[in-house]
Amino acid sequence: MIKRRKTRAVYVGNVKIGDDAPIVVQSMTDTKTHDIEATLSQIYRLSKAGCEIIRVAVPTEKDAEALPEITKNSPIPVIADIHFSPRIAFKALESGISGIRLNPGNINDKGKIKEIIEECKKRNIAIRIGVNSGSLEERLLQKYGYPSAEALAESALYWSEFFESVGFYNFKVSIKGSDVLQNIEANKIFAEKTDIPLHIGITEAGPAGRGSIKSAVGIGILLYLGIGDTIRVSLTADPEEEIETAYNILQSLGLRRKGIEIISCPTCGRIEVNLPDIVYKVEQSLKGKDLPIKVAIMGCVVNAIGEAKEADIGLACGNKSAILFKKGEPIRRVLEEDMVKELLKEIEEMEKNGE
Question: Which residues make up the binding site for [4Fe-4S] cluster (predicted)?
């Protein structure tokens, strides 16, 4: 059982982050924000996939002008992503957003940052303080010589103290980098010194395959250490893949469960059915179903019901056929060509009967 770090609560709209809340899954749209129809369409798809907070890029005034329509129609809280322009930040704050993401190191004007904080306080808007190697302050680069874990943590602590010094506490911190070990160390240093909620992830993780592995390692280790209150898996891929990967990471650690869990054995010379094809067809057919059940598809008698005894339902395959079992008990034998159909039929019955 993972013991999570105790943090204070932060609210992004109606979504609670930190304290005793479940770890929140978020993503970012890849549309041009000023294309309202495309942006809202993607937000709806991501929300359906399980995204709980969405961030949208706001690099131009045209994007900021689109925010009122987007926030009014979004099914989940919207965070405006601001990097360099206080002017655009103020415009975004008038739009009904629930949160704003700032990299203070990119603005580096305490007066303007304080004005933004005061406006957020007045409008009950949460702030995410972003710290990464690309936005590290010059003073820290001179002190450490490069964006080390210690430098990133020091920047995050400095800006956190500044926000608190002006009486603002509804913020979370994100310390991200593409180096997994540096990322873990920076977050550990920060987590040991504060009770501020942390948004975690590996930035610029890469394409879906490699990026998912890199993210699972970095995010997984931090979560195992009890660190992390909200996550984003950053992939060079469709944002819906980020959501699926995020829930897979959380589910593998027993922190959250969404969808149907499929367990299947690796391929080997003992298998006498087309196991990859069967698993793929089952996985695609069950995509989008949110049932708290575990489905096992085992390739041979060695890894059959014994190893899958904790599954709710599954197939124990053999010579061109399989035993269909439920709760560890055999139901009937099915031929290879009928395996997927018969398994799905039983799962539909379980869904109907609320099993």
Answer: 265, 268, 300, 307
